[in-house]
Amino acid sequence: MFKGIGVSPGITIGSAFLVDRWKTRVEKTSIKKDETAREIARFKQAVELSKEQLCQIKEKISREIKDKTYTYIIDVHLLILEDQTLIDETTQLIKKERVSAEWALEQVLIHFASIFDGIDDEYLRERKSDVEHVGERIKKNLIGHKPKSIEEIKSDVVVIAHDLTPADTMLMHKGKVKGFATDLGGRTSHTAIMARSLEIPAVVALNNISSQVKTGDPIIVDGSEGVVIVKPSQKEFTKYLEKQRKFIYFEKELLKLRDLPAETLDGYLLELSANIEFPEEVHSIIEHGAEGVGLYRTEFLYLNRPTLPEEEEQQQVYKHLAEQLTPLTAVMRIMDFGGDKIDPHFNSEPETNPVLGLRAIRLALKREDLFRQQLSAILRASIYKNLRILFPLISGVNELRQAKQILNSVKADLRAKKIPFDEEIQVGVMIEVPSAAITADLLAKECDFFSIGTNDLIQYCIAIDRGNQHVAYLYEPLHPAVLRTIKSVISAANNEGIWVGMCGEMAGDPMCTMILLGLEIDELSMNAVSIPTVKRIIRSIRREEAAELTYHALSLTNAKEIERFVNQEMSRRFPNIFSIVRAEDRF
Protein backbone atom coordinates (compact mmCIF):
# COMPACT_ATOMS: atom_id res chain seq x y z
CA MET A 1 0.00 0.00 0.00
CA PHE A 2 1.29 3.45 -0.97
CA LYS A 3 0.07 6.72 0.56
CA GLY A 4 0.23 9.93 -1.48
CA ILE A 5 -1.92 12.95 -2.29
CA GLY A 6 -5.34 12.32 -3.80
CA VAL A 7 -5.77 15.02 -6.47
CA SER A 8 -8.80 13.67 -8.31
CA PRO A 9 -11.48 11.73 -6.40
CA GLY A 10 -12.86 8.32 -7.25
CA ILE A 11 -11.75 4.70 -7.16
CA THR A 12 -10.46 2.62 -10.02
CA ILE A 13 -9.45 -1.06 -10.10
CA GLY A 14 -7.46 -2.43 -13.01
CA SER A 15 -4.13 -3.43 -14.56
CA ALA A 16 -1.05 -1.23 -14.28
CA PHE A 17 0.59 0.26 -17.36
CA LEU A 18 4.10 1.53 -16.56
CA VAL A 19 5.12 4.60 -18.55
CA ASP A 20 8.77 5.67 -18.76
CA ARG A 21 8.79 9.31 -17.75
CA TRP A 22 12.02 9.36 -15.74
CA LYS A 23 14.20 12.40 -16.14
CA THR A 24 16.88 12.17 -18.80
CA ARG A 25 20.30 11.67 -17.21
CA VAL A 26 22.87 14.14 -18.50
CA GLU A 27 26.63 13.90 -18.12
CA LYS A 28 28.89 16.95 -18.28
CA THR A 29 30.49 17.00 -21.72
CA SER A 30 33.08 19.58 -22.75
CA ILE A 31 33.26 20.93 -26.31
CA LYS A 32 35.88 22.84 -28.28
CA LYS A 33 35.60 26.58 -28.88
CA ASP A 34 34.84 26.11 -32.59
CA GLU A 35 31.98 23.72 -31.69
CA THR A 36 29.95 26.24 -29.66
CA ALA A 37 28.05 27.63 -32.66
CA ARG A 38 27.05 24.11 -33.70
CA GLU A 39 25.94 23.27 -30.14
CA ILE A 40 23.85 26.44 -29.85
CA ALA A 41 22.22 25.67 -33.22
CA ARG A 42 21.48 22.13 -32.01
CA PHE A 43 19.87 23.54 -28.86
CA LYS A 44 17.69 25.98 -30.81
CA GLN A 45 16.64 23.21 -33.21
CA ALA A 46 15.53 21.10 -30.22
CA VAL A 47 13.52 24.05 -28.91
CA GLU A 48 11.80 24.49 -32.28
CA LEU A 49 11.08 20.75 -32.51
CA SER A 50 9.54 20.90 -29.01
CA LYS A 51 7.27 23.73 -30.17
CA GLU A 52 6.19 21.72 -33.21
CA GLN A 53 5.38 18.69 -31.04
CA LEU A 54 3.26 20.72 -28.61
CA CYS A 55 1.44 22.46 -31.47
CA GLN A 56 0.66 19.05 -32.97
CA ILE A 57 -0.69 17.84 -29.62
CA LYS A 58 -2.83 20.97 -29.26
CA GLU A 59 -4.17 20.58 -32.79
CA LYS A 60 -5.00 16.92 -32.17
CA ILE A 61 -6.82 17.77 -28.94
CA SER A 62 -8.76 20.60 -30.61
CA ARG A 63 -9.75 18.27 -33.45
CA GLU A 64 -10.72 15.20 -31.43
CA ILE A 65 -11.91 16.43 -28.03
CA LYS A 66 -15.09 18.48 -27.69
CA ASP A 67 -14.18 20.05 -24.35
CA LYS A 68 -11.18 22.27 -25.11
CA THR A 69 -11.26 23.87 -21.66
CA TYR A 70 -7.74 22.96 -20.63
CA THR A 71 -5.78 23.46 -23.88
CA TYR A 72 -4.47 26.63 -22.21
CA ILE A 73 -1.99 24.39 -20.37
CA ILE A 74 -0.30 23.57 -23.70
CA ASP A 75 -0.17 27.32 -24.36
CA VAL A 76 1.62 27.78 -21.04
CA HIS A 77 4.30 25.28 -22.13
CA LEU A 78 4.61 26.98 -25.51
CA LEU A 79 5.14 30.32 -23.75
CA ILE A 80 7.91 28.79 -21.63
CA LEU A 81 9.61 27.70 -24.87
CA GLU A 82 9.42 31.33 -26.00
CA ASP A 83 10.97 32.62 -22.79
CA GLN A 84 14.11 34.53 -23.75
CA THR A 85 15.69 34.02 -20.32
CA LEU A 86 15.70 30.24 -20.81
CA ILE A 87 17.19 30.59 -24.31
CA ASP A 88 19.76 33.25 -23.41
CA GLU A 89 21.03 31.65 -20.21
CA THR A 90 21.49 28.28 -21.92
CA THR A 91 23.32 29.70 -24.95
CA GLN A 92 25.52 31.89 -22.74
CA LEU A 93 26.48 28.89 -20.63
CA ILE A 94 27.41 26.91 -23.76
CA LYS A 95 29.69 29.77 -24.84
CA LYS A 96 31.15 30.57 -21.44
CA GLU A 97 31.85 27.07 -20.13
CA ARG A 98 32.14 25.28 -23.48
CA VAL A 99 29.76 22.49 -22.52
CA SER A 100 27.14 20.49 -24.39
CA ALA A 101 23.66 21.90 -24.88
CA GLU A 102 22.20 19.14 -22.68
CA TRP A 103 24.46 20.03 -19.75
CA ALA A 104 23.96 23.79 -20.13
CA LEU A 105 20.18 23.37 -20.22
CA GLU A 106 20.30 21.11 -17.16
CA GLN A 107 22.17 23.76 -15.15
CA VAL A 108 19.72 26.50 -16.17
CA LEU A 109 16.78 24.29 -15.17
CA ILE A 110 18.38 23.61 -11.76
CA HIS A 111 18.75 27.38 -11.26
CA PHE A 112 15.10 27.97 -12.21
CA ALA A 113 13.97 25.19 -9.85
CA SER A 114 15.76 26.82 -6.91
CA ILE A 115 13.90 30.08 -7.60
CA PHE A 116 10.52 28.33 -7.70
CA ASP A 117 11.29 26.42 -4.48
CA GLY A 118 11.52 29.74 -2.65
CA ILE A 119 8.00 30.84 -3.63
CA ASP A 120 5.42 30.72 -0.84
CA ASP A 121 2.27 30.35 -2.95
CA GLU A 122 1.55 26.65 -3.59
CA TYR A 123 0.11 27.10 -7.08
CA LEU A 124 3.00 29.26 -8.25
CA ARG A 125 5.58 27.01 -6.57
CA GLU A 126 4.22 24.04 -8.50
CA ARG A 127 4.72 25.88 -11.80
CA LYS A 128 8.27 24.56 -11.41
CA SER A 129 6.96 21.28 -12.80
CA ASP A 130 5.84 23.03 -16.00
CA VAL A 131 9.35 24.39 -16.57
CA GLU A 132 10.81 20.94 -15.81
CA HIS A 133 8.41 19.24 -18.25
CA VAL A 134 9.40 21.68 -20.99
CA GLY A 135 13.10 21.19 -20.19
CA GLU A 136 12.68 17.40 -20.33
CA ARG A 137 11.08 17.64 -23.75
CA ILE A 138 13.98 19.73 -25.06
CA LYS A 139 16.56 17.32 -23.58
CA LYS A 140 14.85 14.30 -25.10
CA ASN A 141 14.83 16.02 -28.47
CA LEU A 142 18.52 16.86 -28.09
CA ILE A 143 19.45 13.20 -27.58
CA GLY A 144 16.90 11.91 -30.09
CA HIS A 145 14.84 9.96 -27.56
CA LYS A 146 11.18 9.55 -28.46
CA PRO A 147 9.11 8.12 -25.57
CA LYS A 148 6.08 5.96 -26.21
CA SER A 149 2.96 8.12 -26.41
CA ILE A 150 0.16 7.54 -23.93
CA GLU A 151 -2.34 7.97 -26.76
CA GLU A 152 -1.17 4.61 -28.12
CA ILE A 153 -2.77 2.78 -25.18
CA LYS A 154 -5.47 0.49 -26.56
CA SER A 155 -6.80 -1.37 -23.53
CA ASP A 156 -8.21 -0.38 -20.12
CA VAL A 157 -5.28 0.46 -17.82
CA VAL A 158 -4.13 2.41 -14.79
CA VAL A 159 -1.13 4.50 -15.81
CA ILE A 160 1.87 4.48 -13.44
CA ALA A 161 4.76 6.89 -14.01
CA HIS A 162 7.52 8.81 -12.28
CA ASP A 163 5.78 11.95 -13.53
CA LEU A 164 3.34 12.92 -16.26
CA THR A 165 3.26 16.09 -18.31
CA PRO A 166 -0.01 17.92 -18.91
CA ALA A 167 0.35 16.88 -22.57
CA ASP A 168 0.48 13.24 -21.42
CA THR A 169 -2.70 13.72 -19.41
CA MET A 170 -4.50 15.48 -22.25
CA LEU A 171 -3.76 12.60 -24.60
CA MET A 172 -5.21 10.05 -22.19
CA HIS A 173 -8.29 8.39 -23.63
CA LYS A 174 -10.85 8.57 -20.83
CA GLY A 175 -12.41 5.33 -22.02
CA LYS A 176 -9.07 3.49 -21.78
CA VAL A 177 -7.08 5.19 -19.01
CA LYS A 178 -9.06 4.53 -15.84
CA GLY A 179 -6.73 6.34 -13.44
CA PHE A 180 -3.11 7.20 -12.79
CA ALA A 181 -0.51 7.39 -10.04
CA THR A 182 2.87 9.15 -10.05
CA ASP A 183 5.96 9.50 -7.88
CA LEU A 184 5.92 13.30 -8.18
CA GLY A 185 3.23 16.00 -8.28
CA GLY A 186 1.04 18.17 -6.08
CA ARG A 187 -2.59 19.27 -5.67
CA THR A 188 -2.27 22.32 -7.90
CA SER A 189 0.02 20.94 -10.61
CA HIS A 190 -1.38 21.22 -14.12
CA THR A 191 -1.40 17.43 -14.37
CA ALA A 192 -3.64 17.28 -11.28
CA ILE A 193 -5.93 19.95 -12.74
CA MET A 194 -6.22 17.91 -15.94
CA ALA A 195 -7.05 14.74 -13.97
CA ARG A 196 -9.93 16.52 -12.25
CA SER A 197 -11.10 17.89 -15.58
CA LEU A 198 -11.17 14.39 -17.10
CA GLU A 199 -12.66 13.00 -13.86
CA ILE A 200 -9.97 10.32 -13.73
CA PRO A 201 -9.05 9.09 -10.21
CA ALA A 202 -5.47 10.13 -9.53
CA VAL A 203 -2.90 10.00 -6.74
CA VAL A 204 0.44 11.85 -6.87
CA ALA A 205 3.50 12.33 -4.61
CA LEU A 206 3.92 8.56 -4.06
CA ASN A 207 7.75 8.87 -4.08
CA ASN A 208 8.77 5.53 -5.62
CA ILE A 209 5.71 3.67 -6.88
CA SER A 210 7.03 3.60 -10.46
CA SER A 211 9.97 1.46 -9.34
CA GLN A 212 7.69 -0.96 -7.45
CA VAL A 213 5.14 -1.73 -10.17
CA LYS A 214 5.30 -3.75 -13.37
CA THR A 215 3.00 -3.50 -16.36
CA GLY A 216 0.12 -5.91 -15.84
CA ASP A 217 0.16 -5.82 -12.04
CA PRO A 218 -3.36 -5.63 -10.55
CA ILE A 219 -3.77 -2.25 -8.87
CA ILE A 220 -6.29 -0.09 -6.98
CA VAL A 221 -6.16 3.73 -7.09
CA ASP A 222 -8.24 5.58 -4.49
CA GLY A 223 -8.09 9.25 -5.49
CA SER A 224 -10.34 10.25 -2.59
CA GLU A 225 -8.09 8.83 0.14
CA GLY A 226 -4.79 9.25 -1.71
CA VAL A 227 -4.09 5.50 -1.49
CA VAL A 228 -2.71 3.06 -4.09
CA ILE A 229 -2.67 -0.72 -3.50
CA VAL A 230 -0.49 -2.92 -5.69
CA LYS A 231 -1.45 -6.61 -6.00
CA PRO A 232 -4.44 -6.29 -3.61
CA SER A 233 -5.63 -9.29 -1.60
CA GLN A 234 -9.09 -10.74 -2.24
CA LYS A 235 -10.32 -8.98 0.89
CA GLU A 236 -8.95 -5.60 -0.26
CA PHE A 237 -10.34 -6.14 -3.75
CA THR A 238 -13.84 -6.85 -2.39
CA LYS A 239 -13.67 -3.88 -0.01
CA TYR A 240 -12.70 -1.40 -2.75
CA LEU A 241 -15.15 -2.82 -5.26
CA GLU A 242 -17.95 -2.02 -2.81
CA LYS A 243 -16.41 1.38 -2.05
CA GLN A 244 -16.22 2.13 -5.77
CA ARG A 245 -19.89 1.20 -6.22
CA LYS A 246 -20.92 3.51 -3.37
CA PHE A 247 -18.78 6.37 -4.70
CA ILE A 248 -20.29 6.19 -8.19
CA TYR A 249 -23.81 6.11 -6.76
CA PHE A 250 -23.02 8.95 -4.36
CA GLU A 251 -21.57 11.13 -7.13
CA LYS A 252 -24.66 10.64 -9.29
CA GLU A 253 -26.91 11.54 -6.38
CA LEU A 254 -24.90 14.66 -5.60
CA LEU A 255 -25.04 15.92 -9.17
CA LYS A 256 -28.85 15.77 -8.99
CA LEU A 257 -28.52 18.75 -6.65
CA ARG A 258 -26.78 20.84 -9.32
CA ASP A 259 -29.70 23.12 -10.10
CA LEU A 260 -31.05 23.27 -6.53
CA PRO A 261 -30.13 26.10 -4.14
CA ALA A 262 -27.81 25.67 -1.17
CA GLU A 263 -30.69 26.14 1.25
CA THR A 264 -31.08 24.75 4.77
CA LEU A 265 -34.21 22.87 5.86
CA ASP A 266 -35.43 26.03 7.57
CA GLY A 267 -34.97 28.23 4.51
CA TYR A 268 -31.56 29.89 5.02
CA LEU A 269 -29.79 30.45 1.67
CA LEU A 270 -26.03 30.25 1.27
CA GLU A 271 -24.34 31.07 -2.03
CA LEU A 272 -21.83 28.49 -3.33
CA SER A 273 -19.31 29.81 -5.84
CA ALA A 274 -16.10 28.53 -7.43
CA ASN A 275 -12.46 29.62 -7.49
CA ILE A 276 -11.00 29.71 -10.99
CA GLU A 277 -7.92 30.87 -12.89
CA PHE A 278 -9.18 30.85 -16.49
CA PRO A 279 -12.48 31.67 -18.25
CA GLU A 280 -12.38 28.21 -19.86
CA GLU A 281 -13.27 26.71 -16.47
CA VAL A 282 -16.76 28.26 -16.46
CA HIS A 283 -18.41 25.25 -18.13
CA SER A 284 -17.04 22.88 -15.47
CA ILE A 285 -18.06 24.99 -12.49
CA ILE A 286 -21.64 25.40 -13.76
CA GLU A 287 -21.84 21.64 -14.32
CA HIS A 288 -21.03 21.21 -10.62
CA GLY A 289 -23.69 23.70 -9.52
CA ALA A 290 -21.67 26.86 -8.88
CA GLU A 291 -23.73 30.02 -8.54
CA GLY A 292 -20.91 32.21 -9.78
CA VAL A 293 -17.18 32.81 -9.44
CA GLY A 294 -16.24 33.81 -5.91
CA LEU A 295 -12.56 34.24 -6.77
CA TYR A 296 -11.04 34.84 -10.20
CA ARG A 297 -7.27 34.86 -9.87
CA THR A 298 -6.31 37.50 -12.44
CA GLU A 299 -2.55 37.09 -11.84
CA PHE A 300 -2.41 33.93 -13.93
CA LEU A 301 -2.78 36.06 -17.05
CA TYR A 302 0.66 37.49 -16.23
CA LEU A 303 2.54 34.25 -15.64
CA ASN A 304 4.71 32.03 -17.85
CA ARG A 305 5.12 34.64 -20.59
CA PRO A 306 7.99 36.85 -21.78
CA THR A 307 5.97 40.10 -21.73
CA LEU A 308 3.22 41.62 -19.60
CA PRO A 309 -0.33 41.52 -21.02
CA GLU A 310 -1.54 44.77 -22.57
CA GLU A 311 -4.82 46.33 -21.46
CA GLU A 312 -6.63 45.16 -24.61
CA GLU A 313 -5.67 41.53 -24.03
CA GLN A 314 -6.80 41.72 -20.40
CA GLN A 315 -10.08 43.38 -21.38
CA GLN A 316 -10.83 40.64 -23.91
CA VAL A 317 -10.16 37.86 -21.37
CA TYR A 318 -12.29 39.52 -18.68
CA LYS A 319 -15.07 40.28 -21.17
CA HIS A 320 -15.07 36.64 -22.31
CA LEU A 321 -15.49 35.58 -18.67
CA ALA A 322 -18.35 38.05 -18.10
CA GLU A 323 -20.14 36.91 -21.28
CA GLN A 324 -19.87 33.24 -20.37
CA LEU A 325 -21.13 33.79 -16.82
CA THR A 326 -24.05 36.16 -17.44
CA PRO A 327 -26.23 36.49 -15.40
CA LEU A 328 -23.96 34.92 -12.74
CA THR A 329 -21.32 37.13 -11.12
CA ALA A 330 -17.53 36.96 -10.82
CA VAL A 331 -15.29 38.46 -8.13
CA MET A 332 -12.12 39.71 -9.87
CA ARG A 333 -9.18 39.69 -7.46
CA ILE A 334 -6.61 42.29 -8.43
CA MET A 335 -3.20 40.81 -9.40
CA ASP A 336 -2.00 39.08 -6.25
CA PHE A 337 1.69 38.47 -6.60
CA GLY A 338 4.97 39.86 -5.35
CA GLY A 339 8.59 40.41 -6.26
CA ASP A 340 9.47 36.83 -5.32
CA LYS A 341 7.05 35.44 -7.90
CA ILE A 342 7.66 37.32 -11.12
CA ASP A 343 10.86 39.34 -10.73
CA PRO A 344 11.60 39.64 -14.47
CA HIS A 345 8.44 41.71 -15.06
CA PHE A 346 8.66 43.98 -12.03
CA ASN A 347 12.42 44.28 -11.49
CA SER A 348 11.88 43.83 -7.77
CA GLU A 349 14.86 43.62 -5.46
CA PRO A 350 15.27 40.27 -3.65
CA GLU A 351 13.47 40.31 -0.29
CA THR A 352 14.44 38.52 2.90
CA ASN A 353 10.81 37.69 3.68
CA PRO A 354 8.75 38.14 0.48
CA VAL A 355 5.49 36.87 2.00
CA LEU A 356 5.53 39.91 4.31
CA GLY A 357 7.00 42.22 1.70
CA LEU A 358 6.08 43.97 -1.52
CA ARG A 359 3.16 41.93 -2.78
CA ALA A 360 -0.53 42.07 -3.71
CA ILE A 361 -2.08 45.54 -3.13
CA ARG A 362 1.28 46.93 -1.97
CA LEU A 363 2.87 46.08 -5.30
CA ALA A 364 -0.19 47.36 -7.18
CA LEU A 365 0.02 50.73 -5.42
CA LYS A 366 3.73 50.98 -6.17
CA ARG A 367 3.25 50.02 -9.82
CA GLU A 368 0.30 52.33 -10.36
CA ASP A 369 0.72 52.15 -14.15
CA LEU A 370 -0.01 48.41 -14.17
CA PHE A 371 -2.70 48.77 -11.51
CA ARG A 372 -4.55 51.43 -13.53
CA GLN A 373 -4.22 49.30 -16.66
CA GLN A 374 -5.79 46.28 -14.98
CA LEU A 375 -8.57 48.32 -13.36
CA SER A 376 -9.39 49.90 -16.73
CA ALA A 377 -9.54 46.45 -18.38
CA ILE A 378 -11.90 45.13 -15.70
CA LEU A 379 -14.13 48.21 -15.83
CA ARG A 380 -14.37 48.08 -19.63
CA ALA A 381 -15.38 44.40 -19.36
CA SER A 382 -17.99 45.18 -16.68
CA ILE A 383 -20.68 46.26 -19.14
CA TYR A 384 -22.63 43.07 -18.37
CA LYS A 385 -22.89 44.32 -14.76
CA ASN A 386 -21.75 40.99 -13.29
CA LEU A 387 -18.13 41.72 -12.31
CA ARG A 388 -16.92 42.76 -8.87
CA ILE A 389 -13.48 44.07 -7.85
CA LEU A 390 -11.55 42.58 -4.92
CA PHE A 391 -8.45 44.19 -3.37
CA PRO A 392 -6.06 41.60 -1.81
CA LEU A 393 -3.91 41.90 1.34
CA ILE A 394 -5.49 45.15 2.53
CA SER A 395 -4.02 45.90 5.96
CA GLY A 396 -6.07 48.96 6.86
CA VAL A 397 -8.32 51.84 5.81
CA ASN A 398 -5.52 53.94 4.28
CA GLU A 399 -4.60 51.24 1.75
CA LEU A 400 -8.25 50.78 0.83
CA ARG A 401 -8.70 54.52 0.32
CA GLN A 402 -5.58 54.71 -1.87
CA ALA A 403 -6.81 51.83 -4.03
CA LYS A 404 -10.30 53.34 -4.33
CA GLN A 405 -8.84 56.73 -5.22
CA ILE A 406 -6.97 55.17 -8.15
CA LEU A 407 -10.10 53.23 -9.14
CA ASN A 408 -12.16 56.45 -9.13
CA SER A 409 -9.50 58.18 -11.24
CA VAL A 410 -9.64 55.35 -13.82
CA LYS A 411 -13.45 55.62 -13.85
CA ALA A 412 -13.15 59.36 -14.53
CA ASP A 413 -10.77 58.71 -17.46
CA LEU A 414 -13.22 56.23 -18.99
CA ARG A 415 -16.11 58.67 -18.58
CA ALA A 416 -14.08 61.39 -20.30
CA LYS A 417 -13.47 59.01 -23.24
CA LYS A 418 -17.16 58.03 -23.22
CA ILE A 419 -16.24 54.38 -22.67
CA PRO A 420 -19.11 52.54 -20.92
CA PHE A 421 -18.63 50.55 -17.71
CA ASP A 422 -20.67 49.45 -14.69
CA GLU A 423 -20.99 52.63 -12.61
CA GLU A 424 -22.29 50.55 -9.66
CA ILE A 425 -19.54 47.91 -9.72
CA GLN A 426 -19.02 46.48 -6.22
CA VAL A 427 -15.64 46.83 -4.51
CA GLY A 428 -14.53 44.35 -1.86
CA VAL A 429 -11.70 43.80 0.59
CA MET A 430 -9.92 40.52 1.11
CA ILE A 431 -9.60 39.84 4.84
CA GLU A 432 -6.38 37.85 5.16
CA VAL A 433 -4.18 39.73 7.65
CA PRO A 434 -4.93 40.27 11.37
CA SER A 435 -4.90 44.07 11.08
CA ALA A 436 -7.73 43.93 8.54
CA ALA A 437 -9.70 41.50 10.70
CA ILE A 438 -9.29 43.66 13.81
CA THR A 439 -10.35 46.83 11.95
CA ALA A 440 -13.08 45.10 9.94
CA ASP A 441 -15.67 47.46 11.46
CA LEU A 442 -13.81 50.42 9.91
CA LEU A 443 -13.21 48.74 6.55
CA ALA A 444 -16.86 47.66 6.31
CA LYS A 445 -17.92 51.33 6.18
CA GLU A 446 -15.90 51.87 3.00
CA CYS A 447 -16.50 48.80 0.83
CA ASP A 448 -19.34 46.65 -0.53
CA PHE A 449 -18.25 43.19 0.64
CA PHE A 450 -15.57 41.12 2.39
CA SER A 451 -13.92 37.96 1.12
CA ILE A 452 -12.11 36.03 3.86
CA GLY A 453 -8.92 34.43 2.53
CA THR A 454 -8.41 31.70 5.13
CA ASN A 455 -5.15 30.32 3.69
CA ASP A 456 -3.19 33.45 4.59
CA LEU A 457 -5.39 34.48 7.51
CA ILE A 458 -4.71 31.20 9.34
CA GLN A 459 -1.01 31.44 8.54
CA TYR A 460 -0.71 35.01 9.86
CA CYS A 461 -3.08 34.41 12.80
CA ILE A 462 -1.08 31.50 14.20
CA ALA A 463 2.32 32.76 12.91
CA ILE A 464 2.99 29.55 11.02
CA ASP A 465 4.62 28.88 7.66
CA ARG A 466 2.44 26.11 6.21
CA GLY A 467 5.23 25.28 3.76
CA ASN A 468 7.66 24.53 6.60
CA GLN A 469 7.57 20.81 7.37
CA HIS A 470 8.71 21.40 10.96
CA VAL A 471 5.72 23.54 11.92
CA ALA A 472 3.09 22.57 9.31
CA TYR A 473 1.25 20.59 12.00
CA LEU A 474 0.32 23.91 13.63
CA TYR A 475 -1.74 24.96 10.60
CA GLU A 476 -5.15 24.50 12.24
CA PRO A 477 -8.27 25.91 10.52
CA LEU A 478 -10.36 25.17 13.63
CA HIS A 479 -8.02 26.95 16.03
CA PRO A 480 -10.12 29.06 18.47
CA ALA A 481 -8.25 32.19 17.34
CA VAL A 482 -9.19 31.54 13.72
CA LEU A 483 -12.86 30.87 14.48
CA ARG A 484 -13.12 33.93 16.74
CA THR A 485 -11.46 36.08 14.07
CA ILE A 486 -13.88 34.90 11.39
CA LYS A 487 -16.82 35.48 13.75
CA SER A 488 -15.75 39.06 14.50
CA VAL A 489 -15.26 39.85 10.78
CA ILE A 490 -18.75 38.56 9.94
CA SER A 491 -20.27 40.54 12.83
CA ALA A 492 -18.58 43.74 11.64
CA ALA A 493 -19.89 43.18 8.12
CA ASN A 494 -23.43 42.44 9.36
CA ASN A 495 -23.45 45.65 11.38
CA GLU A 496 -22.75 47.66 8.21
CA GLY A 497 -25.09 45.64 5.99
CA ILE A 498 -22.45 44.25 3.63
CA TRP A 499 -22.10 40.59 2.60
CA VAL A 500 -19.22 38.26 3.52
CA GLY A 501 -17.73 35.44 1.47
CA MET A 502 -14.85 33.02 2.01
CA CYS A 503 -12.48 31.81 -0.70
CA GLY A 504 -9.76 29.82 1.11
CA GLU A 505 -9.41 26.03 1.31
CA MET A 506 -11.51 26.03 4.47
CA ALA A 507 -14.56 27.09 2.42
CA GLY A 508 -14.53 23.86 0.43
CA ASP A 509 -13.83 21.47 3.29
CA PRO A 510 -17.14 19.69 4.06
CA MET A 511 -15.93 19.06 7.61
CA CYS A 512 -16.09 22.84 8.18
CA THR A 513 -19.43 23.48 6.47
CA MET A 514 -21.67 23.46 9.56
CA ILE A 515 -19.21 25.62 11.51
CA LEU A 516 -19.15 28.24 8.74
CA LEU A 517 -22.93 28.13 8.41
CA GLY A 518 -23.18 28.61 12.16
CA LEU A 519 -20.92 31.64 11.90
CA GLU A 520 -23.48 33.11 9.44
CA ILE A 521 -21.23 33.37 6.39
CA ASP A 522 -23.10 34.53 3.25
CA GLU A 523 -21.04 32.86 0.51
CA LEU A 524 -18.47 30.08 0.15
CA SER A 525 -16.16 29.85 -2.86
CA MET A 526 -14.22 26.64 -3.54
CA ASN A 527 -12.89 24.15 -6.06
CA ALA A 528 -15.85 23.19 -8.27
CA VAL A 529 -15.71 19.49 -7.38
CA SER A 530 -16.34 20.31 -3.70
CA ILE A 531 -19.62 22.14 -4.38
CA PRO A 532 -22.02 19.13 -4.58
CA THR A 533 -20.84 17.69 -1.25
CA VAL A 534 -21.02 21.03 0.58
CA LYS A 535 -24.46 21.65 -0.94
CA ARG A 536 -25.67 18.23 0.22
CA ILE A 537 -24.68 19.05 3.82
CA ILE A 538 -26.35 22.47 3.75
CA ARG A 539 -29.60 21.04 2.35
CA SER A 540 -29.69 18.33 5.06
CA ILE A 541 -29.60 20.50 8.18
CA ARG A 542 -31.28 23.40 9.90
CA ARG A 543 -29.44 26.65 10.48
CA GLU A 544 -30.30 26.34 14.17
CA GLU A 545 -28.39 23.02 14.35
CA ALA A 546 -25.33 24.65 12.80
CA ALA A 547 -25.55 27.54 15.25
CA GLU A 548 -25.67 25.13 18.22
CA LEU A 549 -22.69 23.14 16.95
CA THR A 550 -20.70 26.34 16.39
CA TYR A 551 -21.62 27.73 19.81
CA HIS A 552 -20.29 24.58 21.48
CA ALA A 553 -17.13 24.57 19.33
CA LEU A 554 -16.39 28.16 20.33
CA SER A 555 -16.68 27.23 24.00
CA LEU A 556 -13.78 24.74 23.71
CA THR A 557 -10.26 25.80 24.59
CA ASN A 558 -7.97 24.43 21.88
CA ALA A 559 -7.87 23.28 18.27
CA LYS A 560 -7.58 19.57 19.03
CA GLU A 561 -10.72 19.60 21.19
CA ILE A 562 -12.65 21.45 18.49
CA GLU A 563 -11.36 19.12 15.75
CA ARG A 564 -12.40 16.01 17.70
CA PHE A 565 -15.83 17.45 18.45
CA VAL A 566 -16.49 18.57 14.86
CA ASN A 567 -15.19 15.29 13.41
CA GLN A 568 -17.45 13.26 15.69
CA GLU A 569 -20.51 15.40 14.98
CA MET A 570 -20.06 15.49 11.21
CA SER A 571 -19.30 11.77 10.96
CA ARG A 572 -22.39 11.01 13.07
CA ARG A 573 -24.67 13.25 11.04
CA PHE A 574 -23.27 12.38 7.60
CA PRO A 575 -21.79 8.86 7.75
CA ASN A 576 -22.13 8.34 3.99
CA ILE A 577 -20.27 11.52 3.14
CA PHE A 578 -17.39 11.13 5.55
CA SER A 579 -16.79 7.48 4.76
CA ILE A 580 -16.29 8.50 1.12
CA VAL A 581 -15.12 12.08 0.87
CA ARG A 582 -11.89 11.95 2.85
CA ALA A 583 -9.30 13.17 0.38
CA GLU A 584 -6.74 13.51 3.20
CA ASP A 585 -6.37 13.70 6.97
CA ARG A 586 -7.71 17.23 7.08
CA PHE A 587 -6.46 18.12 10.49
Short description:
By secondary structure, the chain is of the alpha/beta class. 47% of the residues lie in helices and 13% in strands. The protein folds into 3 domains: 2-21 and 148-253, Glucose Oxidase, domain 1 (3-Layer(bba) Sandwich); 33-143, Orthogonal Bundle (Enzyme I, Chain A, domain 2), CATH 1.10.274.10; 264-578, Alpha-Beta Barrel (TIM Barrel).
Radius of gyration: 25 Å
**CATH A-level architecture of the largest domain:** Alpha-Beta Barrel
Q: What coarse outline follows from CA principal-axis ratios?
A: globular
Q: What is the straight-line distance between the termini?
A: 22 Å
Using the coordinates shown, work out and report the CATH topology of the largest domain.
TIM Barrel
Major beta sheet, specifics?
A: 8 strands, mixed
Which percent range describes the beta-strand content?
Answer: 5-15%
CATH class of the largest domain: Alpha Beta
Q: Let me know the CATH homologous superfamily of the largest domain.
A: Phosphoenolpyruvate-binding domains
Strand order of the largest sheet: 1-8-7-3-4-5-6-2
Helix/strand-derived class? alpha/beta
How confident overall, as mean pLDDT? 85
Number of discrete domains = 3
Quick tags:
3 domains; 587 residues; alpha/beta; 8-stranded mixed beta sheet; TIM Barrel; Glucose Oxidase, domain 1; 8-stranded parallel β-barrel; 16 strands; 24 helices; Enzyme I, Chain A, domain 2; disordered C terminus; globular
Describe what you observe in this structure:
- The chain has 587 residues and is α/β, with parallel strands linked by helices.
- It folds into 3 domains: 2-21 and 148-253, Phosphohistidine domain (Glucose Oxidase, domain 1, 3-Layer(bba) Sandwich), CATH 3.50.30.10; 33-143, Enzyme I, Chain A, domain 2, CATH 1.10.274; 264-578, Alpha-Beta Barrel (TIM Barrel), CATH 3.20.20.
- The protein has helices spanning 36-64, 72-82, 84-97, 101-117, 122-125, 128-143, 166-170, 190-198, 234-255, 282-287, 311-325, 343-346, 360-366, 368-380, 397-416, 434-438, 440-443, 454-462, 480-496, 513-518, 531-538, 543-555, 559-573, 575-578, and strands at residues 2-3, 5-8, 11-19, 157-161, 177-182, 202-204, 218-222, 227-230, 271-276, 292-297, 329-333, 387-391, 427-431, 449-452, 499-502, 523-526.
- The strands form 2 sheets. An 8-stranded mixed β-sheet has the order 1-8-7-3-4-5-6-2.
- It is globular and about 75 Å long.
- Residues 339-344 and 581-587 have low confidence and may be disordered.
